[in-house]
Amino acid sequence: MDLLFKNQMANVPDLRHRLRQLRWFRATLRKHANLISEMTGVRYDIDEKRLTEAFLNWIELVNQNKHYAAVDRKDFIIFAAGLVLKELIRLAPAKAVNPSDNELSGELENLTEIIRFWPEGFLYTNYCICAIAAVQEQEFGTSPDIDQSASDLRTWWTYRENASEMPGFAIAFLDKFLGQEPNWVMPDFASARAAVQRALGADHPASALTEPSHN
After folding, report:
1. Which of 31, 131, 164, 178 is 20 to 30 A from 3 via CA?
2. pTM higher than the cut 0.85
3. Domain range holding 170?
4. Per the structure, how many domains does the chain have?
């Protein structure tokens, strides 16, 4: 998966705090949607009311869990992005209003089918991954590697099916795409994350749980 908007985000000073400003969050998601539109021909309609609700829910969830940032800050950045991904999928503020009519080439070629299959999910997920990469680059000097599963259409079929039924699964799939250890049973519990349990000295991280299978 190509990080379409990561470099632009990384150039924004103090990105972590900017992302928690509603106006900036809405503007950057729209820019991301426009970038995908330019590349693929997909056009998105965005419901500002739903987008605002997703943002406010996310801020509340982050505040409820922010003490885990002191346990493993790098992992919490991923988890926080997973929480907004969960809310975006649950509230569905974006809607693709026309199909992709451009064939991508080069490194993006393998994303054509994924974008056609789930244009909204790709928008939300790619936005969150770009934000994670940019924030981690600012704070730690490195960005996470993207797992090959992020470019696998079969994985996206499973992702869409499971996240549609239980939006919290989006957090586990985001972990998978970033090469982390997903928790497939309690994905939206920060306390159950493998990195948190390791940091707190747990002998058996809860990540050793069953991944949803491809149908």
Report:
1. 164
2. yes
3. 6-199
4. 1
